[in-house]
Amino acid sequence: MFRIAICDDEQIIGSQIENILLDYSERTSLEIDIIVFSSGEELYKYMESSHTFDLIYLDIEMECMNGLEVGKKIRNTMKNHKTDIVYISGKDGYDRQLFDVQPLHFIPKPIDPNKVIEDLRLAMTRADKLGGIFAYKKGNESHKVPIKDIIYFESLGRETRIVTVKGEDIFYGVMQNIFEIVRKYQFIKIHRSYIVNYNHISIFRYEEVIMSNQIILPISQAKRKEIKDIQLSIEQEE
């Protein structure tokens, strides 16, 4: 689970960022947990109570404890250099002041949804939360494969073929169960017999995909519109 804080004293902005993230999470099956704060003091007190976040969207211009002060306390007082901070502001000219906090990025107002998602994905990549391991069993043996190395799964009746950048293997597995495990890593079910890693698709066509290993896999007729929508959704956020 990737934990995110949004801190902005403008409720409309906080809600806007939350909705952008929740919508993206729903469309891509990413597992995220979001808490929204309306002041810097509220966020800092929450973190003082041993609560941590992977990413914080933090407004700079807030009353009392502003975003710069909160960031410095997180870095210097709490000695937390792991949490990524994305600053939000309606003004420019904070470059030098932001240097000590070492933010991941700066997003100007009005908010661009694409920038919000770009920073989410960058933070998740830095935290290695878009990676992961897929595990399966063969007899008494347990096998583990990095998610990023998997090209696709193919149903062979009661068995499943897993094809990776290093080769392939066959194990007993149910495709729907496999899909529930890997869908959050941008795997797509293009056919009842195929689950593919979106990041290993070299060419999209209406009726088929060409994978990074040059294998051509069919998109079932019933799935074509859905797959096209997923493709457009993901590419709009990249």
Automatic annotation (TrEMBL):
Keyword Phosphoprotein: yes
Domain (HTH LytTR-type) ranges: 134-233
Protein's organism: Tissierella pigra
Pfam families the UniProt entry points to: LytTR, Response_reg
Keywords attached to this entry: Activator, Cytoplasm, Phosphoprotein, Two-component regulatory system
Lineage: Bacteria, Bacillati, Bacillota, Tissierellia, Tissierellales
Stored PROSITE patterns: HTH_LYTTR (PS50930), RESPONSE_REGULATORY (PS50110)
Function: Required for high-level post-exponential phase expression of a series of secreted proteins.
Molecular-function GO term, any one: phosphorelay response regulator activity
Coiled-coil annotated residue ranges, if any: none
Domain Response regulatory, first and last residues per copy: 3-124
Keyword Phosphoprotein set for record: yes
Modified residues (4-aspartylphosphate): 59
The protein's name in its UniProt record: Response regulator transcription factor
InterPro entries associated with the record: CheY-like_superfamily, LytR-like, LytTR_DNA-bd_dom, Sig_transdc_resp-reg_receiver
SUPFAM superfamilies, sorted: CheY-like
